[in-house]
Amino acid sequence: MGYSDFTGEFNYSIDSKNRVNIPSRYRKTMNEENVCEVVISKGFDSNHIDVYPLPKWITLRDKITASMQLVNRVHRNFIRQFTQNASHCTLDSQGRIMLTPKLMEMAGIKTNGNAVIIGMIDFMEIWDPEELKKHEENTPLTDSDFEKLEQLPLI
Amino acid sequence: MGYSDFTGEFNYSIDSKNRVNIPSRYRKTMNEENVCEVVISKGFDSNHIDVYPLPKWITLRDKITASMQLVNRVHRNFIRQFTQNASHCTLDSQGRIMLTPKLMEMAGIKTNGNAVIIGMIDFMEIWDPEELKKHEENTPLTDSDFEKLEQLPLI
DNA sequence: TATAATTACCCATAATTACCCACAAATCTA
DNA sequence: TAGATTTGTGGGTAATTATGGGTAATTATA
Question: Among partner residues A39, A67, A83, which is closest to B154 by beta-carbon distance?
Fold first, then answer.
């Protein structure tokens, strides 16, 4: 995944064909690494869309499949849920991707509406502006959240 | 099995000849690896159909025969269940396969009805839309499932 | 072996998608 | 500041995809 450093927040429109623009700075990074394909998927919180540049997706996928067994029912269910809402997109020559109706519905994103793209270092999130606002109001990081994070060898 | 990365969920119709389309992206992957044959079989959960590209089937089969003992009754039963309902299909020139009446019945898939194909990375599942909905309602991944997954060296 | 049923192979078509071009707004450069 | 370039957005068209159905070849059945 090299040196992707997706940061910031961008406002774009969803056109009549359900296309969204990918921030040009992100595109440049991906270009330098010859990546023109991403995988969009349901975010773990389900009310937004995750966008993984292909190499990032592959490592994610491999980590998950490596520890999963096909004969294990829970594992099968997890893989299914994990891949079910994931779909490969190729950036068009204008640097856009086309969202799927199902993911749009999950995220509350509407045709001819708007969307916010947020950089998450090595992947992105696509939010409906309203949903994002709600999320920010409802789930600020608490002191106890930070305490939990302190226990990880993070920062 | 190379680099198959079957993801996503697709809705297709079952025609009067019990044919289903295989998603074109999956076909492309198989084509690149010169695979035009799959094995359809009863899924381990029994209420859907598994579709294995031939090479995947072969490795699965070999793993099973290598670790199973014919003198063990449970093993025999497993092998029987595993192969009994497995049947080889060749994709037609339109990229479709023909399902067998027996597997269709097991999965609740009806002639002239609909079916959902789900990518499972290196194989696929075919579901009756109703059965899938039921399954999703009955077996959602819980918070505790996710907590268990967090303990894996995953993400 | 003759006949019926099934399957493989082919062609046709509507809907969808990928690809291309265009242009206005914003940003950069000299 | 003026011109050039980049960026975001819209839309037209060719190509692909999903689906239906006809017919010859194959298989099963009596």
Answer: A67
Better pLDDT: B155 or B50: B50
Structural domains in chain A plus CATH codes: 9-128 (3.40.1550.20)
Nearest residue to D10 via alpha carbon and C1': A15
Q: Return left, alpha or beta for B23; rule: phi > 0 is left, psi -120 to 50 is alpha, else beta.
A: beta
Task: Report pLDDT digits (tens) over A51-95.
Answer: 999 999 999 899 888 878 888 888 888 899 889 999 999 999 999
Amino acid B7 CA to nucleotide D25 C1' distance, rounded Å: 37
* Residue (of A94, A2, A98) closest to A49 by Cα position: A98
Shortest Cα distance, chain A CAs vs residue B31, angstroms: 18
The answer to whether A15 CB sits below 7 Å from nucleic acid chain D is yes
